[in-house]
Amino acid sequence: MLALKSVKQRYQPTPEVGRLLALFRRMVNDCIQIGISSQVTALKRLSVLSWPQRRPYECPTYYKACAVSRAAGILATRKKSLRRGVPTRDPYSLKPQITAYQGFKIRNRALQIPVGPRRYNYIPLSGHTLSVLSAPGVTVRSFTLTETSLSLCISKEVTEVECSETTGVDRNLRNLTVGNDEQAVQYDLSLTVRIAKTTSCIISSFKRNDSRIRQRLASKYGRRRRARTQHLLHNATKRIVGEALESRRAIVLENIEGIRRLYRRGNGQRRRYRRRMNSWSFAEAQRQIEYKARWAGLRVIRLSKKETRGTSVTCPRCGERLQEDLRLGRKLWCATCRVIMDRDVVAAINLSRRGRLRFDRSRTPRESQGGAVEAVKGNPTPTAILRVDALKSSKQAQPKDLTEPLSVSGRVASNLTRKW
User: Fold this and answer.
1) Nearest by Cα to 156 from 170, 146, 141
2) % residues pLDDT > 70 (the chain)
3) What are 292-348's pLDDT values in tens digits?
4) What are the beta bridge partners of residue 168?
5) Cα separation of 357 and 374, whole Å?
6) pLDDT-above-90 percentage for the chain
7) Exposed, middle or buried by CB within 10 Å (0-12, 13-18, 19+), for 342?
């Protein structure tokens, strides 16, 4: 399968590169205006209509073709938002940049880009970028230039790893919980919540009269917060993918699209609580896990909303609904099994089991049964149901805590001293 990712570095632009950045932005904006006025989003039609506007620009034709391609992508995104009923303003490219997939080469440890007729500019590549590009099978597909950074999109053909088990990933505001029936591990992300809170306090303390200065400072602190959050998520997701690759386990993710609707104004929640929940970077964690797993050759199973319903409140032992108690915090207890479990660990285990069912159904009969079996409609197909032997319940039984050892071994904890 084909795996994609990008590598980014900083650079110092020359005057010729700065001129190309401005020209490319103007061409993109011209194509966007023509597309909006003509109600056109198709690439071929937009290319024909915008050619009289792009033709007078003095730049290589590679950038003219890439400008209309970028404009078509922006218009397609706008059309999708309008179809969903999301109010959007007319798009306009503000930051000068270049995105091109033609006319460039990697020569003498530098990126060669055309700037005119038989004239080229060379951007030196950093040591990290060269080490990534030197890996076997890596191909550079395109590059993106801004005023300060260079981003290279690379790809390679990866052999898919044969997985025998699955591991579920439950994304939360303060942690990432990864586990299955054998073990469960929690990666602490509480620092991201403190970073978001500190940044919000700093921005709210600005007292300048000029709104443009306040916006510039807020953007600076916002970029700093985003970079620190992405670094923390990178460390956690790298360990998750590495451990899954070592144990040959497919990664199972839940679908939590539309969760922002739960934290809108008017839902009976406090403003600080809504602000904290809306700063949750759940999509960034999923993006990093998916591209790292694909680059390593691991399979990622994305369950639907119907398949993930009730994963955090369903007992993994007996399947009954877990009960809440304010004294237990994020722990839930089962009235049938008389055990206490962490809701994040419960969600990870249930995700792993439901992803395993999808994983078993997608495998071929030869892989699942170990021999050649003719696939005929109507043949009975046994479904593997993973379960754990539940403890016998009694009225005198005391609840047991399953959360403390689950961070390492996943075994059952000792009995609690108090009666339930």
Assistant:
1) 141
2) 86
3) 999 999 999 999 888 888 888 888 888 888 888 777 778 888 888 888 888 999 999
4) 179, 252
5) 21
6) 51
7) buried
Left, alpha or beta for 224 (phi > 0: left; psi -120 to 50: alpha)? alpha
C-alpha distances (whole Å) from 201 to each of 118, 143, 198, 212 are 53, 37, 5, 19
Please tell me the distance from the alpha carbon of residue 316 to that of residue 356, in angstroms, as a whole number: 14
Strand, coil or helix: 111: strand
pLDDT digits (tens, 9 = 90+) for 115-165: 988 889 999 999 999 999 999 899 999 999 999 999 999 999 999 999 889
Q: What is the pLDDT of residue 312?
A: 87
Q: Could you tell me if residue 203 is left (phi over 0), alpha (psi between -120 and 50 degrees) or otherwise beta?
A: alpha
Sign of the C-alpha dihedral computed for residues 81, 86, 91 and 96 taken in this order: negative
State the amino acid at position 18 in one-letter form: G
**What is the phi-psi region of residue 416: left when phi exceeds 0, alpha when psi lies from -120 to 50, beta otherwise?**
beta
CA angle 70, 285, 6 (to 5 degrees): 40
pLDDT at 363 (0 to 100): 64
Interacting residues of 400 by C-beta distance below 8 A, sequence separation 6+: 338, 339, 340, 391, 412, 413, 414, 415, 416
Distance CA 244, CA 249 (A): 5
Beta strands at 339-342 and 400-401: parallel, antiparallel or unpaired: parallel
Residue of 340, 290, 294 lying closest to 317 (CA atoms): 340
**CA 111 to CA 105: how far, in whole Å?**
6
Reduce the DSSP state of residue 128 to 3 states and report it.
helix
Q: What is the pTM of this model?
A: 0.77
Question: 198-239, pLDDT tens digit by residue?
Answer: 999 999 888 878 888 888 999 999 999 999 999 999 999 999
Strands 175-179 and 184-188, bridge-based pairing:
antiparallel
Structure tokens at 17: 């590169």
Token duo for residue 214? 């306040």
Per the CB < 8 A criterion, the answer to whether 254 and 176 are in contact is: no
Q: Tell me what pLDDT residue 411 has.
A: 35
Question: How far apart, in whole angstroms, are the C-alpha atoms of residue 245 and residue 161?
Answer: 8
Euclidean distance between CA atoms 27 and 22, whole angstroms: 9
